[in-house]
Write a structure and sequence with these properties.
mainly alpha; 0% strand; 64% helix; single chain
């Protein structure tokens, strides 16, 4: 900090010895040491307080950014919820007016729609075991059911080779 070397310290000690004398020099050295310690402690406390303020500012900035992200997420969730409500309202209106033309052309063997139980389900959730039959996928689901039925599901034919063989 002050860039003081050994030779400069030696010159300062000799001058202090000449000015103060050998009786007062130890007392003056203790006094100077006390002031140096106080100055260092004050400097360290100011430095620590400054670092705490910087950390507080960082935390405040981070908190502000997190709050902004939460507000954005909340707004997008509200928009999505509004969109879902509008779609649900449109679907309810369509059901009230009657099934659309595509649904009336579907095969009558398709599974019926089960009503939603709003008291036990979250919005957009179907009750347990509920199936939604889509008119476009009715033919596909029938073909999938037929392809899932394999000969392994049937019992094997009786085997005549297991009959008793006459012994000789």
């Amino acid at each position: 900090m002050f860039d003081v070397g050994f030779s400069e310290l030696l010159v300062i000690a000799v001058v202090a010895l000449l000015v103060l004398g050998p009786e007062r020099l130890p007392k003056a050295a203790r006094f100077a040491g006390l002031w140096v310690r106080k100055a260092r402690s004050h400097w360290n406390s100011v430095k620590a307080e400054f670092e705490r303020d910087l950390a507080d500012d960082d935390l405040k900035r981070s908190l502000r950014e997190t709050q902004d992200m939460l507000r954005d997420a909340q707004a997008s969730l509200r928009n999505a919820g509004t969109g879902l409500q509008q779609e649900l309202q449109g679907a309810g209106d369509a059901v009230m007016r009657g099934l659309p033309a595509a649904a009336s052309t579907a095969d009558s063997s398709a599974e019926p729609l089960l009503p939603l139980e709003s008291s036990r389900n979250l919005p957009g959730e179907l009750p347990a075991g509920a199936h939604v039959a889509h008119p476009e996928s009715a033919d596909e689901s029938r073909s999938e059911e037929q392809s899932m039925h394999t000969p392994m599901d049937e019992p094997p034919p009786p085997d005549d080779a297991d009959d008793e063989v006459p012994q000789r």
